[in-house]
Write a structure and sequence with these properties.
The protein is α+β, with helices and mostly antiparallel strands and about 400 residues long. The protein has 2 domains: about 230 residues, Multidrug efflux transporter AcrB transmembrane fold; about 110 residues, Alpha-Beta Plaits (2-Layer Sandwich), CATH 3.30.70. The protein has 13 helices and 6 strands.
Length: about 400
Amino acid sequence: MPGFTATKESTLSTSNLTGRLARACARHRRLVVAGWALALLTSAALIAGLLGSALTTEDDFTGQPESQRAEQVLERSFPAAAGDGADETVIVSSETVDVSDTAFKHRLGTIATDLRGAGAEKVGRGPVADDGHSALLLVELRDDVAPIVERVIAANGDGGFRVLVVGEESIDADFSTGTDEDLARGEAFGLLLALIVLVLVFGTVVAAVVPIGVALTSIVVSLATIALIGQAYGLNFVVVNVLVMMGLAVGIDYSLFVLSRFRQERRAGRPIEDAVATAGATASRAVLFSGITVVLALVGMFLVPQTIFRSIAVGAIAVVLVSVLAALTLLPATLAMFGDRVERLRVPFAGRGRGGAGLWSRVMTGVLRRPRMSLVAGVAVLVALAVP
């Protein structure tokens, strides 16, 4: 039956759409890789120039749901009181100087002048604390809050006065900055963990790096895509977090399927191009249908009339589509270029040794020998992880 199987898969790889695409990419591998490299450079330029203006910290409804209409009724029925329209509130306080003192009044005036110079539309006096040692400045913004925050930081501590700022814009800016920092740390940790897992799965460093490279390429191109989309439709900054998270997940996952099948076909003795085509006709076909299923599921998020959900849907759909495209084109071309070099830098005791069972095959054999004990141990680990 091996001859029948080989003939069947050979026919599949020539008649199947994904198989024909994989073979074409393998034959024109330099052209395909060059095209993706050009897309990567173009995406980097688009991200640098457009991504900042495509993202916003605003969180609003995209339609007119009942809660939005109710809020509008409340605003019409109960107009904002004087000072409620301020975008930011600057708190000026001193432990030794009273608000009625000339020094305190002068300091308030100096800070107000600095804030106007930083781009504030209007700076007005606000309430005074009961103890007479704190006063508020109510700031209406013209543009970005960042210059206002910088002036407040510079003024804090000068002359013994404590100066702080609070407001929706500054809170959103702090939240955005914290999210970016967390994302950077999460990416570094996630990539390192993914690399370790892939090395254990494949047993070679080169084979482990290929899926990560494909995933990172998909993420960069997807970020450029949302940078362009964001010029027409404002996207919440959370789209970047979701896109990177989904990009690492699906990009590595899809590449792992195709690469595993390619290595299997090479071990069976198939030529490199035939191995790529067979992997394309089987694993890549599964990747295509998986990607379509994920996209269809994510489209349902557009039913929620809210900018955050819309942004999450746009980012996730973009990176899934690009990841599928990369798995169908870039990955076959890369495998054709590397060939058997994906087996280089072998790691001892990981992956599949020559002529022997792989690490995970040995693990599965042990699990099947003691299914009840393995089930209990697995459930115990999951419960322990879920407790926090």
